[in-house]
Automatic annotation (TrEMBL):
<keyword id="KW-0004">4Fe-4S</keyword>
<dbReference type="InterPro" id="IPR017900">
    <property type="entry name" value="4Fe4S_Fe_S_CS"/>
</dbReference>
<dbReference type="Pfam" id="PF13247">
    <property type="entry name" value="Fer4_11"/>
</dbReference>
<feature type="domain" description="4Fe-4S ferredoxin-type">
    <location>
        <begin position="157"/>
        <end position="188"/>
    </location>
</feature>
<dbReference type="InterPro" id="IPR017896">
    <property type="entry name" value="4Fe4S_Fe-S-bd"/>
</dbReference>
<dbReference type="InterPro" id="IPR050954">
    <property type="entry name" value="ET_IronSulfur_Cluster-Binding"/>
</dbReference>
<dbReference type="InterPro" id="IPR006311">
    <property type="entry name" value="TAT_signal"/>
</dbReference>
<feature type="domain" description="4Fe-4S ferredoxin-type">
    <location>
        <begin position="189"/>
        <end position="218"/>
    </location>
</feature>
<keyword id="KW-0479">Metal-binding</keyword>
<protein>
    <submittedName>
        <fullName>4Fe-4S ferredoxin</fullName>
    </submittedName>
</protein>
<keyword id="KW-0411">Iron-sulfur</keyword>
<keyword id="KW-0408">Iron</keyword>
């Protein structure tokens, strides 16, 4: 797999490297040693997070290994928990896709809670990658939908439920909007984020028509006892304040042949996840035999997230 990004982000990445090189030079010996006085017992790299490392797609195997060790050390320092971080490559001959049976979804939001726990989302901010909309039957006005209904009172008669998350678009507008190329589409179709290169400009949030990207206004707070220690560099590793994050199809699970946390947690079996290139997969059967639709398809984003109904009727 090539790690070379498509461009250098309008020269920003080169400027960033020159600036940070100056910072490291100014640090002198403290930049390469455990300077207990200046950096609290950390190396400069640890103290500054990933600011001194190259873009993920340009990093060598040794640099990736060093970055993973840094993430694990910082997580241990921050949470007091041993965290294992991996750089799991895309599976060969695999493009992931999702299908959701809206006639089975009852709005329980078990998928939301499973995602929060699996992907180390900040509990204080109540950040959630998955948004479940409650709408009256016969309508599909996403802007007027109820986002904050009580999940203990569902299903509400006369209403239906529409879960939304990152659509992992084949033509992702968020990628085009990013000035630093901190986000891109992987060979398995997952749109990922290099959190160390995100500058928090939020252009990607503006570009996304599905409300799928979320900004960390504060340092995400996660109780140590609830931290998921099995993490991935491009997935659920602990994120810092000031970056944008999103659903990544649980890279720490799906690239090892497992299902996403949301799919496993769904009590009604509404969620179907799989390899779009596998003609024997369940998702391929759904796409070939069900009346499927995609949200805002007219925008040309080519989402890899479909909806269907056993009742063979559209909610619109």
């Amino acid at each position: 797999m090539s790690r070379k990004p498509e461009s250098d982000g309008q020269g920003f990445s080169a400027l960033r490297r020159r600036f940070l090189a100056g910072v490291a030079t100014a640090g002198g010996a403290a930049a390469t040693a455990h300077a207990t006085g200046a950096w609290g017992g950390q190396t400069l790299q640890d103290a500054m997070g990933g600011l001194l490392q190259d873009h993920y797609q340009r990093m060598t195997k040794d640099e990736i290994h060093a970055a993973l060790e840094r993430i694990e050390r910082n997580a241990k320092r921050r949470f007091g928990v041993e965290v294992h971080c991996e750089d799991t490559p895309p599976l060969p001959n695999t493009v992931f896709g999702y299908a959701l049976n809206i006639s089975k979804c009852k709005g329980y939001r078990d998928c939301v809670q499973a995602c929060v726990q699996e992907n180390n989302l900040g509990r204080d901010s109540q950040m959630q990658y998955i948004r479940v909309l409650q709408m009256p039957n016969g309508t599909m006005d996403l802007e007027a939908a109820e986002h904050y209904y009580d999940p203990k009172e569902v299903p509400v008669p006369g209403h239906w439920y529409l879960p939304m998350q990152c659509m992992q678009c084949d033509n992702p507008p968020c990628v085009k909007a990013c000035p630093t190329k901190a986000t891109w589409k992987e060979p398995d179709g997952i749109v990922v984020v290099d959190y160390d290169w995100c500058i928090g400009c939020r252009y990607c949030m503006t570009a996304c028509p599905y409300w799928a990207r979320h900004f960390n206004w504060t340092e995400p707070q996660i109780p140590a006892a609830e931290l998921n220690p099995n993490t991935n560099f491009l997935g659920n590793r602990p994120r810092p304040r000031g970056v944008v994050e999103k659903c990544h199809f649980c890279t720490q699970r799906t690239r090892k042949g497992r299902q996403p946390a949301c799919q496993e947690a769904c009590p009604t079996g509404a969620r179907i996840f799989g390899n779009l290139l596998d003609p024997t997969s369940e998702i391929r059967w759904v796409l070939e035999h069900k009346n499927v639709f995609r949200l805002k398809e007219e925008l040309g984003t080519e989402p890899k997230f479909w909806y269907f109904s056993d009742e063979r009727v559209s909610p619109a």
